[in-house]
Amino acid sequence: MYLLVILLWVSAVLAGSQTVSTDGIINLVKRRLPDHAGDFEFRFIGNVTEFPLTGQPAIDEYSVSSTPDGKILVEGNSPIALASGLHRYLTDTLHIDIWWYIGSRLDLAPESLPPLDVPMNGTSVVPWRYFFNTVTFSYTAAFWTWEDWELELDWLALRGVNLPLAWVGYEKTLLDTFKELGMTDAEIPPFFSGPAFQAWNRFGNIQGSWEGELPMEWIDNQFELQKNITTRMVELGMTPVLPCITGFVPSAITRVLPNAMVVNGSQWDGFPVEYTDVAFLEPVDPAFAELQKSFISKQAAAYGNITHIYTLDQYIENTPYSGDLDYLRNVSYSTSQSLKSADPDAIWLMQGWLFFEDEAFWNSDRIEAYLGGVENNDDMLVLDLFSESVPQWQRTNSYFGKPWIWCQLHDYGQNMGLYGQIMNVTINPIDALATSPSLVGFGLSMEGQEGNEIMYDLLLDQAWSGSPIETETYFHNWVTRRYAGNGSIPDQLYSGWESMRSTVYNNTDLSNAKAVTRSILEISPNITGMVGRTVQNGGTTVNYDPEVLVSAFHTMFYAANTNPALWENPAYLYDMVDVTRQVYSNYFLSSYLSLISAYNSTPHSNATIAAAAQNITNILNTLDSVLSTNSAFSLSTWLNAARSMTTNETLADFYEYNARNQITLWGPNGEISDYASKSWGGLANGYYLPRWEIFFNYLEETEIGSYNETALNERLFQFELPWQNSTSVHGSPMGPSGSLQSILNGLVGSLGSR
Ligand SMILES: *[C@@H]1O[C@H](CO)[C@@H](O)[C@H](O)[C@H]1NC(C)=O
Ligand SMILES: *[C@@H]1O[C@H](CO)[C@@H](O)[C@H](O)[C@H]1NC(C)=O
Ligand SMILES: *[C@@H]1O[C@H](CO)[C@@H](O)[C@H](O)[C@H]1NC(C)=O
Ligand SMILES: *[C@@H]1O[C@H](CO)[C@@H](O)[C@H](O)[C@H]1NC(C)=O
Ligand SMILES: *[C@@H]1O[C@H](CO)[C@@H](O)[C@H](O)[C@H]1NC(C)=O
Ligand SMILES: *[C@@H]1O[C@H](CO)[C@@H](O)[C@H](O)[C@H]1NC(C)=O
Ligand SMILES: *[C@@H]1O[C@H](CO)[C@@H](O)[C@H](O)[C@H]1NC(C)=O
Ligand SMILES: *[C@@H]1O[C@H](CO)[C@@H](O)[C@H](O)[C@H]1NC(C)=O
Ligand SMILES: *[C@@H]1O[C@H](CO)[C@@H](O)[C@H](O)[C@H]1NC(C)=O
Ligand SMILES: *[C@@H]1O[C@H](CO)[C@@H](O)[C@H](O)[C@H]1NC(C)=O
Ligand SMILES: *[C@@H]1O[C@H](CO)[C@@H](O)[C@H](O)[C@H]1NC(C)=O
Ligand SMILES: *[C@@H]1O[C@H](CO)[C@@H](O)[C@H](O)[C@H]1NC(C)=O
């Protein structure tokens, strides 16, 4: 055994790759459980995975047991297997965890760690557990500090993720690559999009920035941040997926390469031509491979030779220049060859989103041609991006044999509705595993990290279970660790979550709601077209009886009578805000319908319109006060994070503009307005309420026959546009406006059946 380890180590050193080490997991324990640094022992066993991988890792295995001298021994065949074993002990035995928006609760571990009478063990059912969507880097992480990243990466490691995307800082390497070609500072930076919009520039959907240019300071700082991120990912035993050259280039490239084969990408979502129609350097052009080599060697020089897996998407919401089968095959063949020339072990990771999003273009022949250009199946890895609702792997015959990953997308634009598909997320990936020989991983591809954290946990845990997880027990155990630190957890919390499990989180009506919903309070007011939207992004149809949620609210609220310490528990505070938010979002519907019926009744009475309007105003004000008690639900958190990225006030204004614009108008003139809407304190009464007030006035002034949507929208825009540029959170203090407990005490009586 020892000899084998030494041999592995020697061969790893000879190959120039890093040997695996337990340093990452030991450091994680020191960070999160400093009092217990000496209480755990980590040891590699079995066929230990080496890094950087050339190909696929082995199935992960761990076991956790107690040593005679009272330590907790975690053994596993990779650093992530060790992290998964540690997590199992922390969650199942100590009932503690680390959470989005709440932070690490691992400091609640008891002074003396309970020993294990029976060892625990686990085996992953898939070699890969993937995480992130390219757009998560903008919707969620645009303004993250290193501290935010540290929490995120610990969350990922403990939950067994071994294949995270790592996009941060891309622009620096890209800039240097273009500069080497002879392009100038006047030609390259104007191509980049603003700090909150980089994801879509990376996809080739948009180019350039409105209201200011991406500054060098940003580009440099992000590059430095990425050094920390990739170093930590590697230390924890993950395989980072790094960017590369996609083909999207500043159009000025033709100055230095006059004969370059450059074509235009398509227009994206109604953006003005100056911001879209991005130039695409054809991969068959020899310059493409040259750029690829230059980029990848610069990237390796900066972050080390830490991966062979590269993220590369050419046609996300972007129509290929030609639908000719040979054309498509040549594009992917040349792209793949460019990667191989830069890194002989390269694997191309791509989203399968395009095949769903533009199904009319991507018929079976074209998909086969494009994927077929990559001759060796193992040189590619496809993300079946929205597997829980619109899987593409069946129709593409398992991506014609390419290895692929079953992903839960779950939400668009980090919208916030409570939502989940507990059945599909447990049953379908396991069915797929039995059916598709090239399925090699489960993953999370959310556009943003909203709430609903249990749905994300569920799929990552499913990756360690060969049969579908039984969700009733799962939710019960999850609640236990969620509210750690309370001594006992009142039964009401278990029953509140149980009623949500079988309703809110058991959506099976995919024709009405394929993903997280948004409340109509967040969308631009109108007299029709708001209720019952079934579009996948931002549908407004709620597929459960709203009374069930009201009752879950009461049950969970009264849990704090049983155990008042819950009012000090950050998980409880977060969840009560979230459930209250959804209850009010649902109430909003009936008030909206009253307003419209008041408007539609003849004779048209200002008094009845005003009465209905008052109810809407009350809901938005109440909602705002609830949301503003919690920084996770506050506009100010997002805006302050943006401003904190710089000490230069001019740049801080520009970053704040970006932050505001993404969640409201999304584009210089509202090109995809409200796509990434949020129920946040400061927005509810600072942005949405003023819009509704404009609407109320418009209704009062306008007879039914003269209703003019264009005229209404012009008025709304007169408010929406200057809001983008303001720098104070209108109508709401920057921070909590009262304690949640006293606000909810005042509300609970009125939250009955309606
Ligand atoms: C060890 O794992 C590697 C990588 O998955 C695999 O190629 C190899 O066959 C395994 N060796 C043994 C002895 O299981
Ligand atoms: C893993 O744990 C299960 C349940 O305790 C047990 O039945 C099984 O034998 C264990 N497997 C190994 C390899 O230790
Ligand atoms: C990287 O991490 C170090 C601490 O290890 C920290 O001091 C530094 O600020 C981080 N860099 C960035 C760009 O956040
Ligand atoms: C990465 O690998 C390449 C090719 O083997 C080598 O030339 C280069 O020096 C390595 N870079 C680093 C930073 O290790
Ligand atoms: C979820 O709903 C479906 C019906 O839509 C039902 O058959 C199933 O039993 C429900 N599952 C749970 C866990 O409640
Ligand atoms: C699961 O998703 C599929 C689409 O893959 C859908 O047809 C099916 O109705 C869903 N099942 C449930 C139980 O939601
Ligand atoms: C807004 O309402 C008008 C009038 O009913 C309707 O014609 C229009 O389609 C609606 N707009 C949207 C975006 O639903
Ligand atoms: C306003 O809301 C109350 C309940 O709070 C309801 O009784 C009343 O009918 C509503 N009025 C209108 C005009 O919608
Ligand atoms: C702040 O940034 C702006 C825009 O890049 C720049 O013009 C200005 O010189 C900077 N101010 C300071 C004090 O660095
Ligand atoms: C209703 O209010 C609007 C202004 O808000 C006003 O122009 C209109 O004359 C009022 N209608 C009646 C019947 O009072
Ligand atoms: C609706 O309003 C727009 C903008 O004010 C105006 O150009 C258009 O003529 C109006 N339509 C009708 C039918 O009045
Ligand atoms: C917003 O501010 C920018 C400068 O930061 C300016 O160029 C732009 O005209 C302003 N836009 C509006 C609508 O006021």
From TrEMBL:
GO terms for molecular function: hydrolase activity. Pfam families: NAGLU, NAGLU_C, NAGLU_N. Residues 474-730 form the Alpha-N-acetylglucosaminidase C-terminal domain. Residues 129-465 form the Alpha-N-acetylglucosaminidase tim-barrel domain. Residues 25-114 form the Alpha-N-acetylglucosaminidase N-terminal domain. PANTHER family: ALPHA-N-ACETYLGLUCOSAMINIDASE. This is Glycoside hydrolase family 89 protein. It comes from Oidiodendron maius (strain Zn). The lineage of its organism: Eukaryota, Fungi, Dikarya, Ascomycota, Pezizomycotina.
